[in-house]
Amino acid sequence: MPKRLLPLVILAVALGLAVLAFLNPPRSERIVETEPNRLAVEVLELEAKPYRVLLQSYGTVRPRTQSELVPQVSGKIVSISPNFRNGGFFEAGELLVQIDERDYRAEESRARASLIEARQALVQEQAQVDQAREDWLRLGNKGEPPALVSREPQFKAAQARVLAAEAALDTAEANLDRTRIVAPYAGRMLEKKVDVGQVVSANTSLADIYAVDTIEVRLPLKNRDLPFINLPESYRFAEVEHSLPAVKLLSDLARSEQWQGRIVRTEGAIDAASQQLYVIAQIDDPYGEQFRDKQPLKIGQYVTAEIEGRELPDALVIPTRTIYQGTYVYTVHEGKLLRRDISIGWQNAEEALVVSGLEAGDLLVITPLGQVASGTLVKIVSADNAQNEALSQSKADAGPTAGTL
Asked: How many other CB atoms are found less than 10 A from the CB of residue 309?
């Protein structure tokens, strides 16, 4: 290569190196500061709104009207109704048990005959009284004759015998009628205790029955629930004018079913054993057409109850599951987790009424957290994303990451 071209070659090589250096500058590694991990939570913005309190209770079904069938006369049972069986339905006035009536029919006939004789004797005595008065006047006597002359004692005795005979006939007729044991109301047989052919005496228990027009459930109320219900209280001269609270009775004896009723009265004393007040729920016509598609209620059946309480105008209600140890919750403020102590006025298994500690507009954390320090950085996500973020954060490295610039 000629010496004169050497400077040109060197210049070209230097120019090429300069271009390469410009296009590929030297790289330097440095630590990139990243945003610290934030706890993903789902929140609920609190709002004050009307809220109807539903009180929880329980009890067993019982009849409002229950009776024990007892005969007033003795004798042998000659027939019973086909409905005179445990669980049988019967109508008011239906003949349930027939006691042998022959002796009582004979007694009624004897009493009727005695009455006829007494009335005949009274007629004869009246005739003798009239004759005695005529004889007194015919003898020229003035005024009323003496009682003994006019046969007044004998006449009154005859009258008394008529009255006694009439009373005996009434008793005989009543005893004859009492051989027919009829249903005092439309009802159902709870327990049958006698059968055909059995000889019973007066006051022998024949059966236990109850009316089917209405059934009741005795429900205890917790003391903390009393301010949240308008009780149907009664006073000596007047009743408090409150609408009867609605109650929903639920049972899963055969299948899950419910019945609608009303709280009709409050008991007059606190139960000594439980120190609770009891109210009475009532269901009208429980075996009628309106409940035809349901399993018939049984006496003694256990049911749970949801009682309609008062409607609160501006209530702050939160899910019970968001409360920790019954005293505090977590909220989010400016990206940080804050622990808030609260006071609860009323709660059930699902919801709690907050009296103090929270305000409308607060962001309540509804994601289960456990023990988390107040001030922890958080980010708000939806319900689905909250679960995904929690899984990913448990796997992520908590430290800073290295990068290149």
From this structure: 20
